[in-house]
Design brief:
Length: about 375
């Protein structure tokens, strides 16, 4: 299952659903996937990328922020966003530095760390020399890579092994990476907790809620839902036969939000992928990708999308007296608008842009 995500990603990239300049380093040969799978993976990618970018934008006034990916596998988000300039530090005093941490089983992190060390494009991006080969500035920033241990440690990106079922291992990894529990943090888990026993997933959510209880933190879960109808029962059986039983599946959207609240998170919301695809994604981009392939599997599409969901939990307790102080949303509220928002009508967005430009011109 770890590599399947990247196989689907490579298939979407090949057809132009979205851009990823690094996935080919992990999936050498693209595999043709059915339009139903491609559109489903696009909706997952677009929704989670939107949430992540919203967090980055929301915390742009903070001096520091952190992004933690649980069960990251061979995900290339760090490399893509760094290459695009989204995560690169600026030199002015108002810039935000980002620490990006990925955790997974050691056999996965061993292979990924080896790829990072072996492949120039990955290593160069990690070291911050994305476009510097031409101008001769190729001096690397310090990065410690231990392929035997499956570890990469640097000031901007770390990759560490941890069994997420063991909170002690998670804590040790976060501490080794230098995670600061008092600055804005985003945590992502895609189809991770659902494969753990319920108590293990609950314990992890509760521990994270406690550790980040004094700051602004958001966590997004992408998981299966609605296992008790006919389609859900078939989904459960299919995955079980493949050796991937959904041990920790949460049955309803209400139960997903309640799980976060019981774990100490301040608020939570959940939506099916059907609702997210129809109302939360950029309508212009959705219109664009719908023209990429002939698609007539609408009944199955709607069924599948009703059985996956995204849940977002938020803690928003920044204080003026946190150890960094500068720009961390003093008094709370840095994430007060963060969540699963409906996309703006393109006409309204265009009008707002015009009005904003007029305000700037008149100031």
């Amino acid at each position: 299952m770890t590599m399947l995500k990247q196989v689907n990603c490579r298939a979407c990239v090949r057809l132009g659903y979205f851009r990823d300049d690094f996935v080919h380093h992990f999936v050498k040969t693209p595999v043709r996937r059915a339009p139903l799978i491609n559109r489903g993976y696009y909706s997952r990618f677009a929704a989670l990328r939107k949430i992540l970018l919203d967090f980055i934008k929301t915390t742009s006034t903070s001096s520091k922020r952190q992004i933690i990916v649980l069960g990251a596998g061979y995900d290339t988000t760090f490399f893509q966003l760094t290459a695009e300039g989204t995560l690169l530090e600026k030199t002015n005093s108002d810039s935000t530095s980002t620490l990006y941490l990925e955790l997974d089983f050691q056999d996965v992190t061993q292979r990924k760390s080896s790829a990072i060390q072996r492949i120039p494009a990955l290593l160069r991006t990690l070291q911050g020399n994305v476009d510097n080969e031409e101008n001769g500035n190729d001096k690397p920033q310090a990065a410690e890579i231990n392929c035997d241990n499956g570890e990469v440690l640097s000031s901007r990106y770390s990759l560490l092994p941890a069994d997420l079922r063991d909170v002690g291992q998670v804590e040790a990894a976060l501490n080794l990476a230098g995670i600061n529990y008092s600055i804005p943090t985003f945590i992502l888990a895609e189809c991770v907790l659902v494969y753990m026993h319920p108590q293990q997933g609950d314990d992890l959510l509760r521990w994270l809620g406690q550790k980040f209880s004094k700051t602004a933190a958001a966590m997004a879960l992408y998981e299966q839902v609605n296992p008790d109808d006919a389609f859900g029962r078939q989904m459960m059986m299919n995955l079980s036969v493949r050796g991937c039983p959904l041990l920790g599946i949460v049955p309803t959207l209400e139960a997903h939000t309640e799980r976060f609240l019981k774990a100490g998170w301040g608020r939570a919301e959940a939506k099916t992928m059907n609702e997210i695809y129809k109302s939360c994604l950029d309508p212009n981009d959705v219109h664009r990708i719908q023209k990429l392939e002939i698609f007539d599997e609408f009944e199955e599409w709607n069924l599948i999308q009703e059985h996956y969901c995204i849940t977002v939990g938020v803690i928003d307790n920044n204080n003026d007296d946190d150890e960094d102080g500068k720009g961390c949303g003093g008094g709370g509220g840095v994430l007060k608008e963060f969540g699963l928002h409906k996309a703006k009508d393109p006409r309204i967005a265009a009008l707002e842009a015009v009005l904003a430009a007029k305000r700037v011109a008149g100031s």
